[in-house]
UniProtKB/TrEMBL annotation:
<dbReference type="InterPro" id="IPR036390">
    <property type="entry name" value="WH_DNA-bd_sf"/>
</dbReference>
<dbReference type="InterPro" id="IPR012318">
    <property type="entry name" value="HTH_CRP"/>
</dbReference>
<dbReference type="InterPro" id="IPR018490">
    <property type="entry name" value="cNMP-bd_dom_sf"/>
</dbReference>
<keyword id="KW-0804">Transcription</keyword>
<feature type="domain" description="Cyclic nucleotide-binding">
    <location>
        <begin position="10"/>
        <end position="114"/>
    </location>
</feature>
<dbReference type="InterPro" id="IPR000595">
    <property type="entry name" value="cNMP-bd_dom"/>
</dbReference>
<feature type="region of interest" description="Disordered">
    <location>
        <begin position="158"/>
        <end position="177"/>
    </location>
</feature>
<dbReference type="InterPro" id="IPR014710">
    <property type="entry name" value="RmlC-like_jellyroll"/>
</dbReference>
<dbReference type="InterPro" id="IPR036388">
    <property type="entry name" value="WH-like_DNA-bd_sf"/>
</dbReference>
<keyword id="KW-0238">DNA-binding</keyword>
<dbReference type="InterPro" id="IPR050397">
    <property type="entry name" value="Env_Response_Regulators"/>
</dbReference>
<dbReference type="Pfam" id="PF00027">
    <property type="entry name" value="cNMP_binding"/>
</dbReference>
<protein>
    <submittedName>
        <fullName>CRP/FNR family cyclic AMP-dependent transcriptional regulator</fullName>
    </submittedName>
</protein>
<keyword id="KW-0805">Transcription regulation</keyword>
<dbReference type="Pfam" id="PF13545">
    <property type="entry name" value="HTH_Crp_2"/>
</dbReference>
<feature type="domain" description="HTH crp-type">
    <location>
        <begin position="145"/>
        <end position="225"/>
    </location>
</feature>
Length: 242
């Protein structure tokens, strides 16, 4: 499972000349918190490169208004490239977590740039492949892992407590050096494809075992090693069945 990804952001993987060239194709645009940068089902074909801020990428589920968060994207990330490369509607919604700035590039200009810069075209293909692989892993997790495992894995990832995992936009360090994830329970549920009630039940168990402490839109990780064990499927912790 992974919302953050582990590869360089698109703009960071470009040379200085490539980055200057692609950014010159577009215009800067600011988005308020909660604004939609891209909307699922829309027929537009422009792409975005995030300059400042973080966004969520989500899709609608069979449960109507419920959405599944597929990823978190930050500075340097390329968004909307699929709609620029094929004629199909957008496959996901991109929403600003806070005030966000992005460079908006028309689909036609972006395609011409890729045709003239094969190395950059290769980077886009690699990014699409990585995101497809991540989506496959997420689907596998939904089918094979319990809500507790998925929640433990997501908290480890977002807090940066997992080995080799980057710290996400939802995380900060508490004065005690423990990690804190700043997410509401419904947002956590959306990030693992579970109901809010199931997440609340799992959080109660984690609190009982003193693995986490929760507050208003806050989950403090007290025992990251034990949390990682739960994410890996070790359900017997200190003699208690999770």
């Amino acid at each position: 499972m992974g919302l953050l990804g582990n590869e360089l952001a698109f703009a960071q993987a470009l040379t200085a000349q490539e980055r200057e060239g692609v950014m010159a194709l577009g215009i800067p645009k600011r988005f308020a918190a909660d604004a939609h940068l891209l909307t699922e089902g829309d027929r537009s074909s422009h792409v975005l490169i995030v300059v400042k801020g973080w966004v969520t990428v989500s899709v609608a589920t069979d449960r109507g208004a419920t959405r599944l968060i597929l990823g978190l994207r930050g500075p340097g990330e390329l968004l909307g490239e699929m709609a620029a490369l094929d004629p199909h509607p957008r496959s996901a919604t991109v929403r600003a977590l806070g005030p966000t700035e992005a460079q908006v590039i028309s689909g036609d200009a972006f395609r011409r740039f890729l045709a003239q810069h094969p190395r950059v075209s290769g980077l886009v293909i690699r990014q699409l492949t990585a995101r497809l692989r991540s989506a496959d892993q997420e689907r596998s997790a939904l089918a094979s892992l319990t809500v507790l495992q998925r929640l433990a894995g997501r908290l480890s990832e977002l807090s940066g407590s997992g080995q080799g995992t980057p710290r996400g936009p939802y995380a900060r360090t508490a004065p005690s050096s423990s990690s804190v994830v700043q997410l509401a329970q419904d947002e956590l549920a959306a990030s693992i494809g579970a109901t809010r009630e199931a997440v609340a039940k799992s959080l109660r168990l984690l609190r009982t075992q003193r693995i986490v402490r929760t507050g208003n839109r806050v989950v403090e990780i007290l025992d990251p090693e034990l949390l990682a064990l739960l994410a890996d499927g070790h359900t017997d912790t200190e003699g208690q069945q999770a």
